[in-house]
Amino acid sequence: MKKSWLLPLGYTVLLGACSMPVQHGSVDASGNWKPDRSIEFIAPAAAGGGWDTTARMLSKTIDENDLANQSFGVVNKPGGGGAVAWAYIHKRNDPHNIFIGSPPLHFVELAGQSQYGYKDFTPIANLIADYGAFAVRDDAKWDTLDELFADMREDPSQVTTIGVSSPGSMDHMQFILFAQAAGVDITKIRYVSDQDGGAMTSVLNGSVDVISTGVSEAAEQARAGKMKILGITAPERLEGDYLSTLPTGIEQGIDAEFVVWRGVFGPPDMTDEQLAYYEDVFEQASLSDSFAEVREAYGWDELYMGHEAFTEFLDEQSVDLQAALDELGFGGN
């Protein structure tokens, strides 16, 4: 039966066990909390990446639609694959400091590269979904994922895969999860990490065979006739004249999917009132026409989940990723 990370396994309460809730801000007579100063919205990376873009577009939507009583200012805190920002948020433990997160919040902690994971914070809401793609040069011998994985089942080492992410992180693991579902010995897969921007070039010049990347990056090369996309990680085909032509792994008989979610997290000890405030703000932002335009412009899918559903989703994804990382020898826990 196909695993789906959109199905709940149960609800985990994410409040600090030993510390008292932080009371910054004000609570009115009805028990509603509001921040008493501007919000520091942390992007755990340098400007220009997915975290930064998502945070800035959300901040712009909130401010332009007057959805909050305080402004949301984006602050970049790069370093450690996100770990520098997570340590900052955890130490401050202030509801005026929130951050944008995505799957590396799992990977970095599960691989033992940070002491902080999603359970050390308060999931507020997920806003969007993006998806991965597996692409090869236009003249490659494979036309489908099934053909690629058939060769890899015979000898995984004959195929080299490349991605921007470090081993044990996003580009690597989305490919691993699909190969694992297709019956490939994932411990023998050859993966190259190129974080200097040369991954696509390496496929185009024949240095490596397959790139594991985002749909939008692969689609740009495929539209130009330079590459062909063997499959995408979405649970169903995407919308759009071109995107709708891209086959999913599921329709090729591979029982796997991988969603690049992007959501908002708060510090560990948020009160119910603080959580309710932010959950409402981000739900309104997600429902707004202006954020719908943002999603369309960037090719993002809507995937809104409030606190409880988002927490359940993260619990299940963490279990699957931990198992795959342990098999590869990356598990840090």
Automatic annotation (TrEMBL):
Keywords: Signal. Pfam families: TctC (PF03401). Residues 1-24 form the signal peptide. The keyword tRNA processing does not apply. The keyword Transferase does not apply. Belongs to the UPF0065 (bug) family. This is Bordetella uptake gene protein. It comes from Shouchella lehensis G1.
